[in-house]
Design goal:
Layout (H helix, E strand, L loop, with lengths): L14 E6 L25 H10 L2 E7 L5 H13 L3 E6 L8 H8 L5 E6 L12 H12 L3 E4 L6 H10 L5 E3 L13 H11 L4 E5 L17 H11 L4 E3 L12 H11 L5 H16 L2
Parallel strand pairs: 1-2, 2-3, 3-4, 4-5, 5-6, 6-7, 7-8
Helix pairs in contact: 5-6, 6-7
């Protein structure tokens, strides 16, 4: 890993980190944090993130679920109530539940809840096309909720089918669908992402790249082909910067993560940069 990136494009007030997490570390509920990720086997809370965001001229964030329980959603709601810089919550609810409308109605009392996510990367691709899951996705639009699509490249074909069914539902692809950067593979991922980008209701988070690369030996230029593709496919009006803090810490400091993205977009217009680093998140999540 190198730190060639300088935080050379401060955008002033208004920056939004569209994707980060908080947790009280628990080895059972956070079993996905294996021994290779030991650096994040501890608590990460708003008091830890706030000075990091301030250092990088980012003044607000969207907290995204990391555990698949409603307790997790309630935990994030409580943190947001105590920390006004948390402007949005992407929670978890059982989209397959028979009482999904009732549960979504319940969360309407908390305006900070902007959308929901299921960790689809841990499921088979066919999971997202099951009738009960589709019924849950259909209910989101009724309550004006977004949906974060967290997948690997192998899920892209199914994700395209999912998105086709819901042309009015706001979707965002987390972490650029986790391309296989470490292996240098791009072709199949590229086709899938280009197909998803054809749907104007689908946005993409420029986040999570470093954890898909070689954690110890990545170089900034390893990410350029992938950034080129999402920028060309989605345009600067549908890209959202996200750090994936603290998960990103297994491979990079926050400064590295934001520096990669800022340096890539340094030659773009001020309006385009402000959109990617804040405006698009405000628009997508209604912050």
């Amino acid at each position: 890993m190198t730190n060639d990136n300088k935080d050379s494009s401060p955008l002033g007030a208004g920056g939004v980190d569209s994707h980060q997490h908080f947790w009280h570390y628990d080895p059972i509920s956070h079993e996905w944090i294996d021994e290779t990720m030991f650096v994040i086997r501890k608590d990460f809370l708003p008091i830890d993130l706030k000075p990091v965001l301030e250092q990088h001229q980012v003044d607000s964030c969207v907290a995204v679920q990391a555990d698949q329980t409603e307790n997790e959603t309630d935990f994030l709601i409580a943190l947001a109530a105590e920390n006004p810089y948390i402007k949005g919550v992407v929670g978890w609810v059982d989209l397959r539940a028979a009482n999904i409308r009732e549960r979504l109605l319940h969360y309407q009392q908390y305006p900070v809840v902007k959308g929901f996510r299921h960790i689809l990367q841990g499921e088979e691709p066919a999971f997202m096309l099951q009738p009960d899951f589709l019924r849950g996705i259909a209910a989101l639009k009724e309550f004006n909720y977004t949906y974060d699509i967290l997948i690997f490249p192998k899920h892209l074909t199914a994700a395209i089918e999912l998105v086709k069914l819901f042309p009015d539902q706001p979707f965002v692809i987390d972490h650029m669908a986790k391309p296989l950067i470490k292996e240098g593979l791009i072709d199949d991922w590229k086709k899938g992402m280009q197909a998803l980008a054809q749907f104007p209701n689908v946005y993409c988070k420029v986040s999570g790249m470093v954890t898909e690369a070689d954690w110890q030996n990545w170089q900034p230029d390893h990410f350029i082909p992938y950034l080129d593709l999402v920028t060309e496919a989605f345009g600067t009006g549908r890209l959202l910067y996200g750090s994936d803090w603290p998960v990103c810490l297994v491979a990079a400091h926050y400064t590295d993560m934001i520096g990669l993205v800022r340096n890539y977009f340094l030659s773009f217009s001020k309006d385009e940069q402000e959109a990617i680093f804040g405006g698009n998140a405000v628009k997508f999540y209604h912050l």
